[in-house]
UniProtKB/TrEMBL annotation:
Organism: Pseudomonas zhanjiangensis
Domain AB hydrolase-1 as annotated: residue spans: 22-247
Protein name: Alpha/beta fold hydrolase
Residue stretches in coiled coil: none
One Gene Ontology term of the molecular function aspect: hydrolase activity
PANTHER family, per the entry: AB HYDROLASE SUPERFAMILY PROTEIN YCLE, MONOACYLGLYCEROL LIPASE
Keywords: Hydrolase
């Protein structure tokens, strides 16, 4: 367990393995434990760094407005703190948004980018979008963390054989600081970098679950706007793909990372493989 300070906030991170660095960024209301089924598999071939964003996990929870740009600055500071150089960055949900933000603001920090069940904006494009965002914003404030946790567990892991995963979500969600959770939710709503996706030129893998919150078609649309990206759809999965389909997810991620590393090793301009 390690900590470093950025902008007056103490941030928790963990390291495993050796090799090219892979930075893992969790989702809203979560922590490094998003990656419990990935770390061991990745660490056999890579140096894995997982962190808790401010307001989450073991990191400080300052009483301030949070932003995706601020979360991205924390990740960039960790990369600098550990002198990692360009990294493979993997982000799920809100962590994917952080990945997009780093990609447009600090493309030189990325060797590759893997986006999991996420997108480059959370903006209302229709009346239905407005209603959905308003509903989530309101219910998050009205309902207790316990109620949210139970509902989320049923939504993410509806199968009878997923009872253990539901239990984990219910227990972990209760450990959130609700003020920090709501501040992080507010950071998401209205955020977007879609108009700048052309800046992300590094190899990009977008992993989408067939039963994610947002349809595959939306992911296909923004993948076409990325210069060097492809989409992989994982079947029989919902929003928490690394947890509900870990073997398939790990296999796809490792194949992608190995491909990028091999291309970098054989390129005559391998020192220029960052975005």
């Amino acid at each position: 367990m390690s900590f470093f300070d950025n902008d007056g906030c103490q941030l928790h991170y963990e390291q495993f393995g050796q090799g090219a660095p892979v930075v893992l960024v969790h989702g809203l209301g979560s922590s490094t434990r998003d990656w419990e089924y990935q770390i061991a598999a990745l660490a056999r071939r890579y140096r894995v760094i997982a962190l808790d964003l401010r307001g989450h996990g073991r990191s400080d929870k300052p009483r301030e407005r949070y932003s995706i740009a601020g979360f991205a600055a924390d990740v960039a500071a960790l990369i600098e703190h550990l002198a990692l150089g360009p990294v493979h960055l993997v982000g799920i949900s809100m962590g994917g948004m952080v990945g997009f933000q780093i990609g447009v603001d600090h493309p030189q920090l990325l060797k590759s980018l893997c986006i999991v069940n996420s997108g480059p904006e959370v903006k209302a494009r229709s009346f239905g979008d407005c209603l959905e965002i308003a509903k989530r914003w309101s219910l998050s404030r009205l309902l207790s963390l316990e109620t949210i946790a139970k509902g989320l567990g049923r939504l993410l892991f509806p199968k009878p054989e997923q009872a253990e995963l539901r239990r984990k979500i219910e227990q972990r969600w209760l450990q959130n600081d609700k003020r920090a959770y709501l501040a992080s939710l507010d950071a998401i709503i209205g955020w977007g970098v879609r108009e700048r996706l052309g800046r992300i030129t590094c190899p990009t893998l977008v992993i989408g679950a067939d039963h994610d919150y947002t349809p595959v078609a939306q992911k296909q649309a923004y993948v076409r706007e990325l210069p060097n990206a492809r989409l992989l759809v994982i079947e029989d999965s919902r929003h928490a793909t690394p947890l509900d389909q870990p073997e398939c997810f790990n296999s796809a991620l490792l194949a992608f990372l190995d491909e990028v590393e091999q291309a970098a090793a054989t390129s005559p301009n391998k020192d220029r493989q960052a975005c």
